[in-house]
From TrEMBL:
This is Cell division protein ZipA. Pfam families: AAA_33 (PF13671). It comes from the Bacteria. SUPFAM superfamilies: P-loop containing nucleoside triphosphate hydrolases (SSF52540). PANTHER family: GLUCONOKINASE, SLR0207 PROTEIN. InterPro entries: Cell-binding_unc_protein (IPR052732), P-loop_NTPase (IPR027417).
Amino acid sequence: MCKESGMTNKGTLYFLIGKMGAGKSTHSKTLAEQVGAIRISEDDWLSLLYPDEIQTFDDFVVRHRRLLSVIRPHVQQLLSVGNAVVLDFPANTQRDRQWFVQLATDVAAAHRAVYLSASDDVCLARIAQRRVAQPERAAFDNEAVFTAVTKLFEPPQQRENLNLEEWVQTL
């Protein structure tokens, strides 16, 4: 609360757009440090709440939706009291991005979308590196899942009116 004007300063919601393996989680960590934000990672929450329950993409979708219903009021409260929040959740379809924007808009907070543009080859190479570094993710982090998920990916469009910045990713 700004004591001089009686106005409340709202936080900013940051969210990331990018194919599987584009570097969203890595970038979210850096971004949170740079802007002094609270980072909330879907992968972290899902692994803690549902250990060994996510074996397929359908398993992921069910738990993802449950998590969004819990995260929404929590993030809105954080934004309402002036915190910057980085959501390390994929915003990879127009529908996803509308959800993120509405989450911020509902509490009169700003949003910032970060698009990590990367070729399929770059993403697949990173996924292969991740399987080596994190063998527990090998069942889900593979070319078949990448191909299935990438079919759903929608690059951001100007008509979405996002506060957008784009980062081109390379190896």
